[in-house]
C-alpha cells in the first residue's frame, strides 16, 4: 500500500463516530444517497450491469473466509459493494423484468425504511416497541376486516385485547402457512380428559390418546412447497400432505377433495386441515374457495387459505369476487411483500376467531408475561422488526382505492398480454390469466398442428424438443439482461398431461407498458431464431408428422 494512502484504524473513537454521525458531504455513501433519492429507477439502471457474469466468476469475489483484522473506510467499502455486489444483483424493479412475484417498490418506502431501521424496534415485546405494537395490531385488524368484514364493535373488542390476537405478522408466506397449520394441529389434538394436549405431550402421545393412525393436510397439486416444510416440522410428515386433483384451470376439484377425505378417514387418518390456494404460485389460479369451505364445515377440518400472492386482490372492488368464499376460511395467509408492494420480510396470517391463536400461546418470565400485550406470545418468530410500519404507511399513502388501481391495471395488463400471445402464430398461451399471472411458450404453428395429431411417441419427442427450446430462450433472455421471464413446468390437459416447460410472467409492476410486452415477445422470437439446429429439428419432425397423417 502507498504511504499517502490513508488507512483506517480500529480506534474506539472512530467506532463512536460510525454510531453517531453521517459520512461527510463528499463521501461515496452521501453521493449514493443523493443519487438514490433523485431518481430511484435511474440509480438502479445505472448501477446494476445488465450483462450476466457467470456465477463462478462472482463467487471469486466472495471466497475469503477471514473476518478482516483491520477496518475499512466507509467510502472505500461502499465502492467495493457497488462494484462487486450491486452491479451483479438483479434489477427486480425493471419494468421488463416480469418473472417475479416481488417487483418494484414505491419510492417513499426508502426514506421510511430508514426511519424504521434507525428506531430498530423489536416487536417481540411492548418494552422494546411501544407504539409499534398497537400499530401492528391495527394493521392485522385492517387485513382481518378486509377478509372477514366484521362489525366495528368486533375490532374494538378484539384488536388490542391482550389475551387475543387477530393474526400474526411475520417474515413471509412460509412462516404464515406454518403458523396457521400449527394452530390447526394444536386445536385438532387439544387437551381433553387425562391428555394434556399435543403442545405438552407431543405427537406420539396425542396419536395414542386420540387413536389415529396418522394426520393429513390436503391441498391441490398446485400447492406451494412451503406446505411441505410445514408438514415436516409439525410432525405430520411430507406424506401426510395429500394432494388433490386439479381441473384444466389448475383449480382444486371439490369432488376429489371429498373422495380423498373419505379415503383418509377410512384408514383412520385424521384430515385435520385443508388448504385452498388463492393465486397459485405457478399459474395464479384461485381454488373454488366456497365449495372447499363447505366441505370443511361439514367435515370439521380447519380451512386455511394460502392467499400469499393473490390476497391483495381483495382490495379491488372490481376483482374481489374472484376470491369469493374467502370469509369461510379459519385462517388466511397474505404476503404484503408481493402484491402490496412492500419490501421483503412482510407476511401475515389472519385468524377468523380471535381465540384461535391461544392454541400456540407461549409465555416466559422475563418477557411475554401473561396479560401483557406482547405480540411475541403468539408468534413463531422471536425478535422481529417494525415492518408493519411500512404496510401501515402504504395503506395510508396509497389507500384502498389506490391499491384497487394497481390491482386492476395488473389484471387487465395480463389479459392484454394473453390476447397478444394468442394472436401470434408462433406462441402458445398455456395458462389463461385469472389474476395477473400467465404462462406460455414459443411454439411455431406447425409444431402445434403436429402435436394435435401426433401419436404418443411422436408427441413426447416433439414436446421434448419444444421444452429444450423454452429452456434455451429463457436462459438466453436472462443472460442478455434486457428482460426477464421465469420458467416452470406444467402438465396441461391440452397435451394430455405431458411435462411442459413454460415461461411464467407476473405483471405487477405498474411501469411495465404494453410496448414492453411486445418487445419481450419479439426478443424471444429473435432468440428462438438463433437456436437453428433445434428449430430445424422441430420443423422437420412437425412436417413429417403432418405429412404422415395427410
Ligand atoms: C410466495 C408464496 C408463498 C411463500 O411465501 P414466502 O413469502 O416466499 O415465504 C406461499 N404460498 C404462495 C401461494 C406463494 O405465492
Automatic annotation (TrEMBL):
Gene3D superfamilies: Aspartate Aminotransferase, domain 1, Type I PLP-dependent aspartate aminotransferase-like (Major domain). Its cofactor is pyridoxal 5'-phosphate. GO terms for molecular function: carboxy-lyase activity; pyridoxal phosphate binding. GO terms for biological process: carboxylic acid metabolic process. InterPro entries: Asp_decarboxylase_pyridox, PyrdxlP-dep_de-COase, PyrdxlP-dep_Trfase, PyrdxlP-dep_Trfase_major, PyrdxlP-dep_Trfase_small. Keywords: Decarboxylase, Lyase, Pyridoxal phosphate. It comes from the Bacteria. One of its GO terms (cellular component) is cytoplasm. The modification N6-(pyridoxal phosphate)lysine is found at residue 338. Belongs to the group II decarboxylase family. This is Pyridoxal-dependent aspartate 1-decarboxylase. The lineage of its organism: Bacteria, Pseudomonadati, Pseudomonadota, Gammaproteobacteria, Vibrionales. The gene is panP.
Amino acid at each position: 500500500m502507498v504511504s499517502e494512502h490513508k488507512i483506517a484504524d480500529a480506534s474506539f473513537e472512530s467506532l463512536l463516530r460510525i454510531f453517531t454521525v453521517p459520512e461527510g458531504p463528499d463521501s461515496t455513501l452521501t453521493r449514493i444517497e443523493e443519487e438514490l433519492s433523485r431518481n430511484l429507477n435511474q440509480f438502479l439502471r445505472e448501477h446494476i450491469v445488465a450483462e450476466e457474469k457467470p456465477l463462478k466468476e462472482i463467487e471469486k469475489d466472495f471466497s475469503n473466509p477471514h473476518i478482516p483484522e483491520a477496518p475499512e473506510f466507509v467510502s472505500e467499502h461502499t465502492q467495493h459493494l457497488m462494484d462487486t455486489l450491486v452491479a451483479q444483483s438483479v434489477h427486480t424493479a425493471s419494468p421488463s423484468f416480469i418473472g417475479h412475484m416481488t417487483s418494484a417498490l414505491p419510492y417513499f418506502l426508502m426514506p421510511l425504511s430508514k426511519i424504521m431501521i434507525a428506531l430498530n424496534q423489536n416487536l417481540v415485546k411492548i418494552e422494546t416497541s411501544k407504539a409499534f405494537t398497537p400499530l401492528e395490531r391495527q394493521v392485522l385488524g385492517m387485513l382481518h376486516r378486509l377478509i372477514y368484514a366484521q362489525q366495528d364493535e368486533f375490532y374494538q373488542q378484539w384488536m388490542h385485547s391482550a389475551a387475543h390476537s387477530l393474526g400474526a405478522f411475520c417474515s413471509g408466506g412460509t412462516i404464515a402457512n406454518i403458523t396457521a397449520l400449527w394452530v390447526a394441529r394444536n386445536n385438532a389434538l387439544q387437551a381433553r380428559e387425562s391428555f394434556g394436549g399435543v403442545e405438552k405431550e407431543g405427537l406420539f402421545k396425542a396419536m395414542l390418546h386420540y387413536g389415529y393412525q396418522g394426520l393429513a393436510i390436503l391441498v391441490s397439486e398446485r400447492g406451494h412447497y412451503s406446505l411441505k416444510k410445514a408438514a415436516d416440522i409439525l410432525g405430520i410428515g411430507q406424506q401426510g400432505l395429500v394432494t388433490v386433483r386439479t381441473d384444466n384451470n389448475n383449480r382444486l376439484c371439490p369432488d376429489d377433495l371429498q373422495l380423498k377425505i373419505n379415503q383418509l378417514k377410512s384408514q383412520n387418518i385424521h384430515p385435520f386441515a385443508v388448504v385452498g390456494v388463492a393465486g397459485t404460485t405457478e399459474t395464479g389460479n384461485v381454488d373454488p374457495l366456497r365449495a372447499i369451505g363447505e366441505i370443511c364445515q361439514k367435515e370439521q377440518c380447519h380451512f386455511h387459505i394460502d392467499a400469499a400472492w393473490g390476497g391483495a386482490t381483495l382490495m379491488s372492488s372490481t376483482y374481489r369476487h374472484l376470491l369469493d368464499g374467502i370469509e369461510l376460511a379459519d385462517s388466511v395467509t397474505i404476503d404484503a411483500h408481493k402484491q402490496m408492494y412492500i419490501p421483503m420480510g412482510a407476511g401475515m396470517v389472519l385468524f377468523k376467531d380471535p381465540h384461535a391463536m391461544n392454541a400456540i400461546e407461549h409465555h416466559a418470565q422475563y418477557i411475554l408475561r401473561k396479560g401483557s400485550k406482547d405480540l411475541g406470545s403468539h408468534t413463531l418468530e422471536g425478535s422481529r422488526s417494525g415492518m408493519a410500519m411500512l404496510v401501515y404507511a402504504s395503506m395510508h399513502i396509497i389507500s384502498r382505492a389506490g391499491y384497487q388501481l394497481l390491482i386492476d391495471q395488473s389484471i387487465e395488463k395480463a389479459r392484454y398480454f394473453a390476447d397478444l400471445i394468442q394472436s401470434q402464430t408462433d406462441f402458445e398461451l398455456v395458462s389463461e390469466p385469472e389474476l395477473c399471472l400467465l404462462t406460455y411458450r414459443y411454439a411455431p404453428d406447425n409444431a402445434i398442428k403436429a402435436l394435435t395429431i401426433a401419436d404418443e411417441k411422436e408427441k413426447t419427442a416433439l414436446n421434448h424438443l419444444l421444452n429444450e427450446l423454452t429452456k434455451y430462450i429463457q436462459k438466453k433472455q436472462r443472460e442478455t439482461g434486457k428482460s426477464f421471464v421465469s420458467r416452470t413446468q406444467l402438465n396441461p390437459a391440452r397435451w394430455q398431461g405431458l411435462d411442459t416447460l413454460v415461461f411464467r410472467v407476473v405483471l405487477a409492476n405498474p411501469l411495465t407498458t404494453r410496448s414492453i410486452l411486445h418487445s419481450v415477445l419479439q426478443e424471444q422470437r429473435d432468440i428462438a431464431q438463433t437456436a437453428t439446429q433445434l428449430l430445424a429439428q422441430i420443423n422437420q419432425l412437425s412436417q413429417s408428422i403432418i405429412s404422415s397423417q395427410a
